[in-house]
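cron nightly-structures :: item 1 of 1
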Amino acid sequence: MKGLDTNRNCTDLANCLKQSGIDFVARYYSRTTKNADKRLTLAEAQALSQAGLYLVTVYEDSPTSKDYFSSDRGKSDGKSAYAYAQDINQPRDSAIYFAVDYDATMADIEGPIIQYFNGVYDGLKDSANAKPIYKIGVYGSGATCDYLRKNLSFVEFSWLSCSTGWLNSKTYSNWNIKQSLATTSLCGLDKTAWDSNESQSNFGQFTLQPAQLTNNLPTNQPNQIPITNTGFLNASTGTLNRLLLTQTGVVGSIVATVGAFIKAEPVVSAVIIIIALLGITWLISFYIYLEYSLDCQRIDIAADPNKHNVT
């Protein structure tokens, strides 16, 4: 099958892509991207499915060095990917790929990267309260794809990057999807805006079912209760989970940053804390003084009959 991946929204391109011989479109889930078009939306998933195109999803924030990868980060990304998948009604047993977007060394693959994918599994499992309902794939070099497929039974799919200079990429053949650079424009997408892909056998693809093409609520969450209120409560369970995850991540990052600063600069931190306490004390004292002065004025006014319009 012939496909493409892009960080551009393809809602308005769906019919053109199908007519141009495209069979599947790979799109992104991401928690931290500043490019709104990068994230796959429900409306886009519906449009692509209605045009007869298969979908492939990949979770990617910025996995471009070994510093990104850890068990905790994998668990967080797994939970976020689950929430996004629920937002667009991605069917159970389809795949979510997780990207390793750099030329990882074997030491990186055998260390933080394999720990990351174990975390991804845990995040998907915790989100489903049971065995993960989504299959796991990996995007990366030949070495990354090969090692993870051979050593983690739950990594069922591999997507070989177009960077043929990466470790073992020229010799790896057990891929489900193989990426290559685009050489022409397509349906208004410049050649720099998309990559060409081909698939062999099953690769975790999916389409939305007819009932899901007009339903804005996730349908594959067990025992889901529809939310009918307006406003914020009208968001899907996946959206609410993702918002909670984002807020938790922000608070955690702030706490970690403050903790690291205190550890690195204890003297400066102590001075800042003392100044902050003095400032808070002054504000409280000023507030008490202000309230006292206003109370005195109110008492004076209440005690002076000439200041009241009494008949």
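cron nightly-structures :: done
Confidence is low (pLDDT under 50) at residues 215-237, 302-311.
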